[in-house]
Design goal:
α2 packs parallel to α3. The longest helix has 16 residues. 51% of the residues lie in helices and 0% in strands. By secondary structure, the protein is mainly α.
């Protein structure tokens, strides 16, 4: 478990709940969640960097790569 988050989110909690990093890292984390038995995962890309559109496209590409594990 994690402590009450009313004072803010701990880094450990964020790392547990959020898939972030490169396209490969995000796809790997989503696949790990599927391996834990998650049948449904909500993905919401957060644009980063100067080319926000490309950032969102990479996020969706990572979700697509991992989608085969969620079937």
């Amino acid at each position: 478990g994690f402590p009450d988050a009313s004072a803010g989110l701990s880094r450990a909690l964020v790392e547990e709940l959020v898939a972030f990093g490169s396209e490969e890292a995000v796809a790997k984390r989503l696949a790990e969640l599927a391996g834990l038995g998650f049948g449904e995962v909500m993905a919401m890309p957060i644009a980063a960097g100067e080319n926000r559109q490309a950032s969102v496209q990479r996020a969706y590409a990572a979700v697509a790569r991992a989608a085969r594990f969620l079937a």
